[in-house]
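ok trying again, last paste got cut off:
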Amino acid sequence: GEYVVSFAGMAPADDPRLTVLVVIDGLPFYGGVVAAPVVQAVMLDSLKYLGVKPDTNAPLSPGTPLPDQIFSPVKKAAEVPSVLGLTLAEGQLELKKTGFSVKVEGKGSAIIDQIPHGDAIVEEGSTVLIYLGEEVGEQTFGQWWEDIDPDIEAIKSFTNRVPISTNEDISE
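nice, full thing came through this time. structure:
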């Protein structure tokens, strides 16, 4: 349910002086809804800076720039309920009752974490990822580091070293 959204634009249309590409990762909306307003804002400010005046007679032109136009979302926004501490069955029921899809990670008897978090505003019908465990508050992410780092172990195994400047065994 997430997309890498993008939108590109160039202006002026008859003799382009500026091209803008906006790419946004991990959103539940399409590019025209999310990235296009960013392109518009950057384009309008940049053209103003370059001294390019809007052509009110251009075909398909709105006549004047629309810097504060608000674009309506593709779908209705919804608030995610918090399901922390609930059992899997209770959490799934609560999320599905409010119109969300559910994806489950981990094993255990309780929901210990969720993404997006409770009270977040997202697109209606989005997927909520819930993590299972035995105790609410336990670590939900696996260790990203190695338990034994060979470099750290090598440094710890060094014997007492004498700096070169005070080591009499080294001749100049």
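cool. The chain is about 20% helix and 25% strand. The first helix runs from residue 31 to 50.
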